[in-house]
Structures are given as C-alpha cells and as structure tokens.
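JOB MANIFEST
job_type = single_chain_structure
chain_count = 1
residues = 66
[input]
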Amino acid sequence: MRIRPGQVVCHPELPLRGLVLAVRTNPACLMPVVVVRWENGVVEELDALRWGPLEDAPDEEDPHGG
C-alpha cells in the first residue's frame, strides 16, 4: 500500500481518520514514517508498516510485481 501526502487514512488502532502531512524516512532505521494530523488535532508520526507492506513490495495480484 502506498501512502502519500494529502491522503486520508484511518488510524491503525483507534477509530480516527487523519490527513497525511508527509512521508519521511527515519534516518536511524531507513524505514518510512508517516506524519498524520488526526481529526482530533493531534499530529503523530507512525511507522508506515502499521498500514501494511511497503510500496516496494510486489502486488499480490501481480505475480511480476509491476
């Protein structure tokens, strides 16, 4: 799943929706971090893995990964 700035996402654990402000790479571990402003006004950074596989993982529907 590819998450992009401007996209609306659901919190992986709470019943909240939020706007993706940025997707950054954590320099300590090189993993994508998603910055989200939730509907309650809280801005939070979460590991992108909380929403599923990263965007460079091949699609399950496409055996060639393209």
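[summary]
Residues 57-66 have pLDDT under 50 and may be disordered.
The longest strand covers residues 17-25.
exit_status = 0
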